[in-house]
Amino acid sequence: MEEALKFRKGDRIKIEEELYQVLGGIELVNRSDGARWTEYYVQNLQNGKERWLSVDEIYDEYAIYTSCDSKGFSEEELDAKGWKNADSGVEEVLSWFGNVDAEQGEKASYTEYEDNTGEYLMSVEHWDGETEYAKGYYLDKDEIEVSGDLQQIENPQFRVDYNNCQPRQPQTMQKRRGRKNKIIAVVVIAVLAWGIWAITKSASKKEI
User: 172 Cβ partners below 8 Å, 6+ apart?
Assistant: First the structure.
């Protein structure tokens, strides 16, 4: 029986002969059909690139993604290049660990596209009014393994053009409401502090 691919923060894993470290992970469920999978936030230990490893052992599907801008993701462009809708639904965060920005119970609608070879992927997720994009490709399960003390190969060649894909900060592929709430809280505190200062200054002038 094959060993399940379950990773923890700090694990070193080998993906396509390249060495990565697991920074965090998110367990998700598709509320449309009950399917579950885990997305691991990983960092390449040679070049520092941050990527997402998707592990779905129920359907035996594995893929690796890099987050991108929206270039090339319009329906017209996808149709013109022969991309097809391979999966869609509403995903929900069941649990998370490590250095990711996630909240249990958060939901998003998503669509997964495949090219005409069935190998390459483009993903679109809509989270709380924000849309995020990623490019990737499928992996075979045996291309992913736990690493003890493995040597990184030199000059890795990526299988996808990532010219419009930018390194991510430690978070999920989706932006979070928490960031907005923190900004609002800082603004409110600053306004209150200014108000207290103004009142104190006014009172001091009256006393003089």
Answer: 26, 39, 41, 96, 100, 101, 102
pLDDT at 15: 97
H helices present in the chain, as ranges:
75-80, 177-207
d(CA 5, CA 19): 16
Give me 177's structure tokens.
């409401």
Cα distance between residue 21 and residue 155, in whole Å: 18
- Of the CA atoms within 13 Å of residue 169, those in its CB half-sphere come to 6
Confidence bin at 198 (pLDDT 50/70/90): low
Q: CA-CA distance, 165 to 158, in Å (whole number)? A: 12
Please calculate the CA angle 98-91-1 and round it to the nearest 5 degrees.
70
Tokens 């059909």: give the residue: 33
The CA–CA distances, whole Å, from 120 to 1, 117, 135 equal 29, 7, 8
DSSP H or E run through 16:
none
In percent, how much of the chain has pLDDT > 90? 56
How many CB atoms neighbour CB 142 within 10 A? 8
Q: What are phi and psi of 103, to 5 degrees?
A: -130, 135
Q: What share of the chain is helix, strand, coil (3-state, %, to 5)?
A: 20, 40, 40
